[in-house]
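Progress note, sequence design subtask.
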């Protein structure tokens, strides 16, 4: 999994998905106070560019809290429909976003896909969406 990108002549490299995810957020005072926010708008764009290229499989295999350490993570992971997930696992977050927003994708398609994804996947896709996309 590649966690770096070059933007405006500067290389941005992130240590983990746990670092990329909050840095890809819109600026929030809570993230800034916690010390997890992007330092600049450029770093935020770089984090989004990196996140866009991550596969859904990588996101599933790198939960925010390890499976062994958290009962909620275990419940979420164990509830994923493996057949549905296997159909989407090689998509990048950007490709999944495009699929969701595609006019050919029906509400039934999205409902079905929802049974094959985790909360990390939902969060990642939302970070790439604009407010208009989310509406």
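Output:
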């Amino acid at each position: 999994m590649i966690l770096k990108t070059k933007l405006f002549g500067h290389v941005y490299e992130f240590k983990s998905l746990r670092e990329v995810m909050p840095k890809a957020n819109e600026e929030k005072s809570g993230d800034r106070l916690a010390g997890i926010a992007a330092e600049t708008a450029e770093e935020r764009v770089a984090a989004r560019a990196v996140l866009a290229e991550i596969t859904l499989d990588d996101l599933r295999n790198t939960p925010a809290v390890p499976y062994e350490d958290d009962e909620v993570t275990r419940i979420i992971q164990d509830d994923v429909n493996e057949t549905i997930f296997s159909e989407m696992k090689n998509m990048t977050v950007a490709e999944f976003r495009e699929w969701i927003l595609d006019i050919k994708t029906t509400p039934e398609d999205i409902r079905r896909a929802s049974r094959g994804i985790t909360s990390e996947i939902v969060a990642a896709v939302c970070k790439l969406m604009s407010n208009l996309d989310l509406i």
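The longest strand covers residues 4-7. Work on this subtask will continue into the next period as scheduled.
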